[in-house]
From TrEMBL:
It holds the Pfam family DUF2768. It comes from Chengkuizengella marina. The keyword Transmembrane helix applies. The chain crosses the membrane at residues 6-27, 34-58. This is DUF2768 family protein. Keywords: Membrane, Transmembrane, Transmembrane helix.
Amino acid sequence: MDSMDKMWLSFFAIGFMVLASVLITFARAKTKGVIRFIISFAAVFILICSFFLGLISII
């Protein structure tokens, strides 16, 4: 894997982490009930994906 590919993977991982953070903040501040659970679940899924992208970019 090229170093430029690893750089872009790490940028996507950082972007996904920011997106997950914004989603969690929005879900906890503005929503209730099932919608809150769905948004929080999506944020956790995005955070796990960003973890694996970051891990791949290190290897």
